UniProtKB/TrEMBL annotation:
Stored PANTHER family: NADH DEHYDROGENASE [UBIQUINONE] IRON-SULFUR PROTEIN 5 (PTHR15224)
S-S bonds: 33-66, 43-56
Protein name: NADH dehydrogenase [ubiquinone] iron-sulfur protein 5
Gene Ontology terms: cellular component: mitochondrial inner membrane; mitochondrial intermembrane space; respiratory chain complex I
Role summary: Accessory subunit of the mitochondrial membrane respiratory chain NADH dehydrogenase (Complex I), that is believed not to be involved in catalysis. Complex I functions in the transfer of electrons from NADH to the respiratory chain. The immediate electron acceptor for the enzyme is believed to be ubiquinone.
Superkingdom, natural source: Eukaryota
Disordered, as annotated region: 84-106
Pfam families for this protein: Ndufs5 (PF10200)
Keywords: Disulfide bond, Electron transport, Membrane, Mitochondrion, Mitochondrion inner membrane, Respiratory chain, Transport
Gene assigned in the entry: NDUFS5
Membrane topology, record value: Peripheral membrane protein
Subunit (UniProt): Mammalian complex I is composed of 45 different subunits. This is a component of the iron-sulfur (IP) fragment of the enzyme.
InterPro entries: NADH_UbQ_OxRdtase_FeS-su5
Length: 106
């Protein structure tokens, strides 16, 4: 987010303050969604808010999916619902190690 090269002249980096994944991370490694956030910011840089919302929608959706995992959770729910449906119909029996039975305590 350069503003007439002011960041470089003053020797500060506002991007690390403004970007969620650019903040200091443990062990000096980049955040898990850093690449997606960077793509989204680079796409929208210089376009203006209205145009960036329209043109950078895929990058934004990728970033939000990486952060919140909503599509992954919905897919997992469908898979588990299908498994439960198949168990009710008798078409599938889970292996012994998947059955949620507690082990007897001594």
């Amino acid at each position: 987010m350069p503003f007439l090269g002011l960041q470089r002249q003053l020797g500060i980096d506002l991007d690390s303050w403004l970007l969620r994944q650019s903040a200091a991370q443990p062990h000096g490694k980049a955040g898990a969604c850093h690449a997606f956030e960077r793509e989204w910011v680079e796409c929208g840089h210089g376009l203006g808010q209205t145009r960036a919302r329209r043109e950078c929608q895929p990058e934004y959706e990728d970033f939000m999916e990486c952060m919140h995992r909503t599509k992954l959770a919905a897919r997992l729910k469908k898979i588990l619902d299908q498994r439960d449906k198949m168990i009710k119909e008798g078409k599938y029996t889970p292996p012994d190690y998947q059955k949620s039975q507690e082990e007897p305590r001594p």
